[in-house]
Design a protein that fits this description.
alpha+beta
Length: 181
């Protein structure tokens, strides 16, 4: 897979995750009430409350910009949410600006794509005729999939991956498109 193909797949995936749809050639009348905004990502967590019980955090992260630092892609944005103690009472509400690392994962990768034309074998009187064969092997990369993870890592060795800075620029452009008014 070439650099351009991989970059295209990343952009299409990000657009699909953000819920964008392709627009037609003619522009629709602008409706400010219906304009898209940057989607918030739900987050949950737990903490130990003042009584030693298990409290819960429920909120959302809204990205505002992406950056690169030491080759690592980072997302900056606002976390908002509510802290609830073990008894279900609201302890506090939180609104904080945070920066956190971003992981770009690929669930599957193509290991082999082989097409064999028709084959005719005559092995000492045993005749084997085989029509066209198309063999596709894909590996699934996920926790616990040792062979899939290994094969995906090997297939990516020769790929030219975009650097964190290039990916941050693309994601910032997408955020700008989503948040323009």
């Amino acid at each position: 897979m070439t650099y351009r193909q991989r970059l295209s797949i990343i952009v299409v995936t990000v657009l699909a995750m953000l819920g964008l749809t392709a627009a037609g050639a003619t522009a629709a009348p602008r409706n400010p009430a219906a304009e898209q905004t940057v989607p918030a990502i739900p987050i949950t967590g737990s903490f130990t409350d003042a009584t030693g019980g298990a409290g819960a955090f429920a909120g959302a992260f809204t990205p505002t910009r992406f950056s690169a630092e030491d080759g690592q892609l980072l997302a900056s944005g606002t976390v908002t949410g509510t802290l609830t103690d073990a008894s279900g009472e609201t302890v506090d509400t939180v609104t904080r600006t945070v920066t956190m690392p971003v992981a770009v994962a690929q669930a599957t990768c193509r290991v082999l794509d082989l097409t064999l034309g028709p084959l005719h074998l005559d092995l000492l009187g045993l005749v084997v005729d085989l029509n066209q064969v198309h063999l596709t092997i894909t590996a699934e990369s996920a926790p616990g999939n040792l062979l899939g993870n290994l094969l995906c890592a090997i297939t990516r060795l020769l790929d030219q991956n975009p650097g964190a800075g290039a990916l941050a620029a693309i994601l910032n452009a997408l955020l700008a498109l989503l948040s323009r008014s």
